[in-house]
Amino acid sequence: MPHLRRLAIALLAACALALPFLLWGFRTYQLAFAATHAIAILGLNLIAGQAGLISLGHGAFYGLGAYTLAVLMRHGGVSAYAGILVAALACLAIGYLFGRMVARLAGFYLALATFALALAVPQALKSSHLAPLTGGVQGLYLDRPGAPLGLPVNQDQWWYFVTLGILALLLWMARNLVRSRTGRAIRAMRDDPIAAAAAGIDVAQYTALTFAVGAAYAGIAGSLAALLLDFIAPETFTYWLSILLLVGSVFGGMTSVWGALAGGLFLQFWPDVASMVSRDLVLPVFGALLLLSMRFMPHGVAGMVSVAARAEVAADVDRALTPGMPGRQATPPGTW
Predict the structure, then answer these.
(1) Where are the domains of the chain?
(2) Alpha helical stretches, state H, 23-79
(3) pTM for the complete prediction?
(4) Which residues in 176-326 belong to E strands, given as ranges?
(5) What is the pLDDT of residue 19?
């Protein structure tokens, strides 16, 4: 089974690398944006799926990452690539501080605190005190750099590969985190905070660390989205963005690292699917799609794939243990 999983990942990676040369430019641009959504959802999966912390303010970290990059590029002359790294570090620090502040909250109280963050950040970005840096309600324009060293790819293809490479790195890091001792402590905190504290786990510290890592992922996604859009404004990062990221997380599979890929594709392409039914009923069709997916995929796309894989393994075991099955040698009578 592990070799089949590695083969599937290799085929998926090969297809992802070939797509920009097989699709027209706008589709490549959309896929790059789907990858930014997947990065943000991956951070939310760590917060909500692995740690069990309800977050309705993930879009705020997304916006902070975008504005960190934009301000550094416009006012500091920082390159786009360095700006992505600084945006990640800034959101890491802000996420840690926010996690420390809400460490003692749980349930609806935590949800309200994160929702307040989603409401506050766009208003703060429009503040007259920050307008000289953020551009206020007018926003900021960015100059997205092209491919370096004369590489034979256009701008959209280059940033598709950049975004895809960052997504692959962050998937690998998230997978290792989930399987590490820290990941086990985070899941123990999710399953029973009291028992985790009794076992010696510093619940407040792990809550802050989880928010920090999830916020860093959102900051990276926001900085990449700012470069892809070439323009940002406070109204781009309202609470509705946080709700959509949560929807993508649930659709893909909140407790799965790989579910972020399905969630990112869903958020990017659901308007196209819904518009095929009716351009005037995009949101109602979206709601219907979401209800149907929750009815038939309660654990998201990743959960459905996991169940199908376990069923296939169980079927292989049954065939191996059943005498006389095709392709298997029956056990001779009297043989143990």
Answers:
(1) 18-238
(2) 25-44, 58-76
(3) 0.87
(4) 231-232
(5) 86
